[in-house]
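FAQ: What does the model actually see?

It sees only this:
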Amino acid sequence: MTSATLPARRGPGEAARLWLAGARPRTLGVGAVPVLLGAAASGHPKALPTAGALVVAVGVQVGANLANDYFDGRRGVDTAARVGPRRLTASGLVRPRAVLAAALACLAVAAAVGVWLALASGVLWLLVAGGIALAAALLYTGGPRPYAATGVVADLAVFAFFGLMATVGTAAVQGYGVPARAWWAAVAIGFLAVAVLVANNLRDLATDRDAGRHTLVVRLGDGRARTFYTALIVAGVLTPALGVLLGQLPLLTLVSLLVLPLLVSPLRISARRELEGRALVPLLPLTARMHAALGVLLAAALLVVAVASGSPLAHSLW
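And it is asked to produce this:
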């Protein structure tokens, strides 16, 4: 942790900006978009279950982000050499205990809403899945052996929690089962969620390697990690088209191919091997934008199909 002096007082505006930055708002769509997608994919989206799932997903993500900030700051993984956004703990701008308390508060809210949602909907397997997600949020960079630094485990966790669980779980709590289209949507958005993580880790490759943090990007090396990134975003964009070809998704979901122009800039940046560190900073928001665009287009298409099939979208809050 740095030796920066903690200011005694801050105005509410300055404090809010600090905490907002700590929540990492540019990537919050990774948690929110799969929820909207899952609700649409259910064919019978309802307001209260969807709102509850949104609170759970964003609460877990913000809690994980703040826990990551705390543990990496305390372990010395985040240093002055890192090229990403400034961290609350490592910069000394916020007391470490306050960052940890905020992380735990976010996770507690997510847990409480998640338990209510599982019991109210009768989807009891979500209690187990939610417990695992909460533990994963803390153990990502916390505990004796943080799995963020172990390589493939972290990437699989992102795919599982911000792809499969967020999308399929949201579809399940609508009360009409989980149709095949929800699984296809979950896989597509899961690929792009992992791409967001890989974009982040490509930027931090040098500092992660120097800190002994063996992310999948560090293990693969720069060249193969860039190839992996390319494969993820292409797979994410083409998965809905494959679902249509196999008769698992309605034809209208091909509207998701409108994101193809958004691939140009990320692919161009990742293909330029001379770009490293700070020069790769734009890759994360570009990938997050692509993730959000694909999810919104897919959700919109599935909602139109649901309305066309006579689904009573506005007849029930629960």
